[in-house]
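Researcher: Please translate sequence to structure tokens.
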Amino acid sequence: MTATPDLDASRLASPDLLRSVFRRHAAGVAVITARGAAGPVGFTATSLTSVSAEPPLLSFGISTGSSSWPAVSTATHVGVHILGEHQRELAGTFARSGADRFGAPTAWREGPEGVPLLDDVSAWLVCRVVTRVPAGDHRIVLAEVALGDPTGPGRPLVYHQGRFNALRD
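Model: Translation complete:
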């Protein structure tokens, strides 16, 4: 069965239209961390993208209104953590404004370049920030992978329809 786009139901571009469309787009869930002047910062991101294999580059978006932006705006290195389906609560903690993201029960340690590294994640990377590109009310951060580990536990956590979900076979 083919679904033909209903042009009569179309809406003009708006933040709500973009959010509504992207709620239908399942995305992997990551937490980005950085060392800040007042301590570690971090946020949940679904905008993580592999950019290049040679050199190994990735990108993610961050709102300039985010509480993590001041630290990320000056950080030389960031941590990128791929969350597993067992980490819905952790994803929610790092997504909530005003949450004590690095307090109990969050388990973490200081890693290379002072980057906060979260425990028990499916995979993690420490990346050197290459540039920050203005993009509306966000910045796109390009970062080069320095080191990491892809061997953590669990199946991936995904974000879809405004909720954190597990994959189904």
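Researcher: Any highlights?
Model: Residues 26-159 form a domain with the Pnp Oxidase; Chain A fold (CATH 2.30.110.10).
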